[in-house]
Request: fold
Amino acid sequence: MMDRKQFIRSTGMLGALAALDPGYLFANGKADLPSMRPPVSQRKFVSDSVEQTISVVKKGIADKKLSWLFENCFPNTLDTTVDFEDRSGSPDTYVITGDIDAMWLRDSSAQVWPYLLLVKSDPKLQLLIKGVINRQVQCILLDPYANAFYKDFSRVSEWKSDLTTMKPGIHERKWEVDSLCYPIRLSYGYWQVTGDTSQFDKDWLEAMRLVVQTFRQQQRKEGPGPYAFQRNTSWATDGVPLSGYGYPVKPVGLICSIFRPSDDATIFPFLIPSNFFAARSLRQLHEILKYLKADSARQTDCFTLLQEVEEGLSKYGTVRDPRFGQVFAYEVNGFGSYNLMDDANVPSLLSLPYLIRKEFAANTTYQHTRAMLLSEDNPFFYKGTAGSGNGSPHTGVDYIWPISIIMRALTSADEREIRDCLAMLVRSNAGTGFMHESFYRNDASRFTRKWFAWANTLFGELILRLYRERPGLLTSFQTPAS
Reply:
């Protein structure tokens, strides 16, 4: 398996190959465009409600290229990444990210999230999402510190030599706070939409106990805790200093995340967007526990932890920037050190209104932060002839992530800004008909990951939201001439 550096270097060839796709001809106005989806017989899962939604929404999109992208991208998770089965009456769904045969707790949650609104009219789709929740519970029970897992819990990882507690079934054991937040978000969202509580069984409750316990351990009030990670690698963002525990923090109630949602090591372990996500998730978990009339001590512990995280965010999550004023830091350590930047992977600072609540977009500190993040004051904001947006150390300098452009549109109330984002997203597909992990700022045909279902499905979620909330934008949008 090629490493990340080799893969990035190979993207020039991938871009050239993309030019051979039929979609490339269409994108340049030379031919009609065939669907880039696999044939029906080769699709992993078929949902009638998803197919009907595609048909209905496409009629509300005037621009052919945008409509084509939606048709290809929105069902991509179901078409290509899910492995669904019934196990003794209990649904089980394994979801890969795309070109890596492993299930990330984060990605699998995000990939099926946009389908939640359709489950009431599609019992089969409801079972599939319930199966994701069930599978995530088993993953957490195996190891709450791991971020990615195999379908076969007896499989030994290619990263078995990592200096951490690797068990069979674990693909990678990078501790990321968001890995335990996303399953709560999915469980809560599924419950709110369906009213179904049958997934909240003893295994789910035990997994949630481990979530709270792990968050508690990583507040580091009683030392560094049981988790450490080291890898023999020349890739700097995979390395964790000081014997794999990371740089010291002052215990202030926040939760340490040794890795970011990008799977890159943090600089300062209190990752602010992930702690915001943890606070939101703990509030949702407390609501579920209260509804289930769970043990009062467990409810209290969850709520107390929530309060400690929120207090830590209030006291240590912001800094004053001389140009932008009060802004959210990306990372802090509780001693006064901080890192001002953003990473395209979600949770990000840019994504806070999307993950927490829509009204958060009006928060003055968020507005100051957003202005900083979408400027050259963010070291990972890139602008070029192919587009502009946030990137990530994960893919190196000058590569923009479509996920960041999608998130910018999802958190914007400015129709001009949303239109600009749509135009960039159409251009960034480079004729392949899909979103990618990242693309070079001056040439969208130089991209990483041709098969990245999270980005595809998130793009579909954006179009669905615009269809519901700003239909006039979709009926009037036209891809600018290149």
